[in-house]
Amino acid sequence: MKRHDLDGWTLTFLGLLLAFFAAFLVYPVSFMLRRAFGSGGEFTLAYFGYLLASPLLREALWNSLAIAVLTTAATTVLALPLAHWMTRYDFRGKALLGGLILVPMILPPFVGAIGLKQLLAKFGSLNLALMHLGLLPPDRPVDWLGAGGFWGIVILQVLSLYPIMFLNLSAAMANVDPALREAAQNLGAGGWRLFRTVTAPLILPGWFAGAVIVFIWAFTDLGTPLIFGYARVVPVQIFDAITELNTNPAGYALVVLVLALVLGLFVASKRVVAGRRYEMLARGHTAGAEARATPRQTVLLWLGFGGVLALALLPHLAVVVQSLAERWFFAVLPDHWTLAHYGELFGHGMTARSIRNSLFYASLSAGLDLVLGVTIAWLLTRRRLPFANVLDALAMLPLALPGLVLAFGYVAGFDWPVPWLNPRENPTLLLIVSYSVRRLPYLVRSAYAGFQQTSVTLEEASANLGASPWRTLRRITLPLVSAHLIAGGVLTFAFAMLEVSDSLILAMREQYFPITKMIYALMGRIEPEAAAVACALGVVGMGILSLSLLTAGRLLGRRLGQLFRV
């Protein structure tokens, strides 16, 4: 494919992109690094010593690591047999089941935590049901959430994140040449030995890619511990440190520690995959190696997949039930039902405003991502850049940058006497930018794939007829890749609607609260109906998110899953 040299348009676009990344990505990260290693100009590691010396922060670090490790291990145990069955058997309804099993991935654990508390509290629905059946003494309820909510966090993370592991393991297993397994079986290997010596080494890159995403997601999740009231984890300690940025530098050190851990894991994942050889002489056709499931096996497969899906959806179904309950207290199910909470939701000024705020922030962030993503993809595929790898790395860096870290950097770095840029005064701009930066890699991937699949000869013909690069892009290229762009834009909008970390940290004044911050505020109120209104707000958010992702799924098809792999 022919590449073009640098020209005025290319230099203008490149300059604007680099300025954007410098202001909203490089600057906040470098600001935190400077503060973490000394605020007076001198270099020191003393602040990291404070972290290790503080019993609270040591416990928080240990708890976060434990949650991340347990979640990664449990998602592996859960997703591995599902991926094996999905790639080894051909059965009725397989395509439908393969789509349904991914549904929990699009439902935010922050909202599901509300439902899980209702189900697994000491006098929640599960314990009360067991008491009514005579299987549990009334005076000795089981503490399912465990250790102040620790096990509740792990359970919810596993039920929310297993689809990511499933996607990566399924793709890895589908790429294993069946001839290798057949050769091992002919030599007498079978069962566990076959998996351990042949399958496991070949799917290791896929597993490690999924494990890195799950580990980082579980380690940096802020919303779920806040809903459970479990403060002794790193994300909550960073959240609390926002109030004392100018007096306690330990918050900067904690953020930098998280950033180093996350970047280290991404580097390790690349080295693990690149450091060993996994290629096969020829990739077999997995479809030809699939065994046709018998009717009995089909029923068992549906029961297995359906059981996992039912458990994963149960917390969110509890949120729906609570939003419709007039009162749900000391009862397995509500006695009376009502739609009044939805009426209050749209009638109350602040909750209705939070919906409008989220729609406004998400729409503008998706529009900004469209402009940035198309420009970056166009430069990478249609221009010869001297530092193309740098631009590509900057565009993909947010994948390794948790929202918790970026939002903290915005609060610390933009504490300026400029109201529209200071999140303490007006977080609108920074919320839009943070949503955009976090989801930019998704749209860049969509646009890049679209440009790669579009022949450059049409653009060359347009240029030969005298059209400018901008007119060629607008009249020729963009219409050809519109499906990719619409899907990517819808996807960035959907995830921005229920973004948690950025919203909780940056939105400090009630008038600017998006949906997630309003849910958190309602859950902290003592009025009994506040929790039900919060659930109704969560249901509205999940509805908008689900419709958006269904639209993106119809446009991207199976390529939608590619966005959740590294």
Describe it.
- With 566 residues, the chain is an all-alpha fold.
- It has 2 domains: 280 residues, MetI-like (MetI-like fold, Orthogonal Bundle); 223 residues, Orthogonal Bundle (MetI-like fold).
- The protein contains 25 helices and 2 strands.
- Strands 1-2 form a two-stranded parallel sheet.
- Helix 2 packs across helix 12 and helix 3 packs parallel to helix 7.
- The radius of gyration is 25 Å and the shape is globular.
Estimate the helix proportion, in percent: over 70%
Dominant shape: globular
Q: Uncertain spans, ≥5 residues at pLDDT below 50?
A: 281-288, 562-566
Domain module count: 2
- How would you sum up the major sheet? 2 strands, parallel
Q: Indicate the proportion of strand residues.
A: under 5%
What's the level 1 CATH class of the largest domain? Answer: Mainly Alpha
CATH architecture of the largest domain: Orthogonal Bundle
Rounded to an integer, what's the Rg over CA atoms?
25 Å
| End-to-end separation | 26 Å
Q: Strand order of the main beta sheet, please? A: 1-2
SSE class: mainly alpha
Order of helices and strands: HHHEHHHHHHHHHHEHHHHHHHHHHHH
Per CATH, what is the topology of the largest domain?
MetI-like fold
Tell me the CATH superfamily of the largest domain. MetI-like
Average residue-wise pLDDT: 82
Give a count of the beta strands, DSSP E runs of length 2 or more: 2
Q: Figure out the total of helices.
A: 25
